[in-house]
Amino acid sequence: MGRPRAFDEDQVVQAAAGLFARRAFDGISVDDLVAHLGVHRNSLYAVFGSKRGLYLRALRWSLQNQVRPLLEHAGPADRAGLAAAPELDLLLMAAVDRAPQDPEIAREVAGLLADDDTATLLGLRLRERITTTTVEEH
Fold first, then answer.
1. Contact by Cβ (8 Å): 76, 117
2. Are 86 and 66 spatial neighbours (Cβ–Cβ below 8 Å)?
3. What is the pLDDT of residue 10?
4. What would the mean pLDDT of 23-39 be, rounded to a whole number?
5. Where are the domains of the chain?
6. Do residues 121 and 82 make contact, with C-beta atoms less than 8 angstroms apart?
7. Which CA distances in Å does 78 have to 22, 63, 82, 87?
8. CATH 3.30.565.10 for domain 9-137
């Protein structure tokens, strides 16, 4: 009989979503995940199967718990103001970084981008993020 899990799976998924949103899939190593999430490498693989498995869980969590509620509660007039919402960052990173090469992630992203307003909002968030990053670097 194995040892009981020493971490809260939901908290790890949420924390991973934040990491992936800031640094993208390829910008994070398994060592980074282990260090930042406080989960042993063996536990990470046992629960999520792989770094990609954790990424997919984090993306789905973000879409369900951050992006969809944000979009549902914002009326058409509020959407322009959402361009600064960091809750959109993992969706943005997934659309740019992973969806072109991973069909499963592409399906997750496409489900939200089918709405023209959401696609436009994601473009606005991309512009906001680029502008903010450029300003912070100088």
1. yes
2. no
3. 94
4. 95
5. 9-137
6. yes
7. 24, 19, 7, 15
8. no
